[in-house]
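Transcriptional regulator
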Amino acid sequence: MRTADALLALHQAVDEVRQAGDEPAGRVRITLSCFAYQLILRLVFANFCRRYPQLQLIIFVHDGTIGLISSGFDLGIRFGNALEDGVVARLLYPAMREGLYATRACLDAHGTPQTPADLLHHRLVAYRFVTANHLYPLTLHEDGQGISITMPTPLICNDIEVMADVVRDSLAIARIFEPIRDLQGDHDAFIPVLEPYWRRYPPVHLYYRQHAQKACCVQVLIDYLLGKPL
């Protein structure tokens, strides 16, 4: 038996003992990206923890690619539905667009772009991938084709909250997923730029091991996230 499988079996055995009563108990390990935490888990995990006080919820926020089974997690939330062996994917959130946003002050200072070429007169806060350690290229869509745009990038980060702050301070244009922008308390200050050219991303899925539902503590979180009546 592989080490990851042995550890899973051990955790499930411990959880079965702790679940001898009616209240679900045990440990649930979930990995997800920063945007998935902001968009999905952040809105529900406090109520979940209050409802199931005997559960220990371990949240690992990481934008890099992680193997669910090899890394010992019970659940994961990511874009797409590409699966590793022994993993199930369930739809959590529909496809979304990655928007370009700036403040009115930024646009007044550098002009409002009308075409992708106009972005060369602006600056972009760049995103650096954690695991690959390279900058995330800016890709827009025009006539059904992807086009890459190279802009001056005086600021580089790996966090969506930092990117939002850059927009607020009128320092640069930032790429922010449309529903994340809508969650901002001052979202009206985030002015869409070149909206017809925005890129669309695939739906967000909940991933879990094929037999994870055998553990009651994992099942209750799966049901909670999928919105099933409990």
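thats it. The chain has seven helices and 13 strands. The helical segments are 3-18, 34-39, 45-51, 104-110, 160-168, 178-183, 216-226. bye
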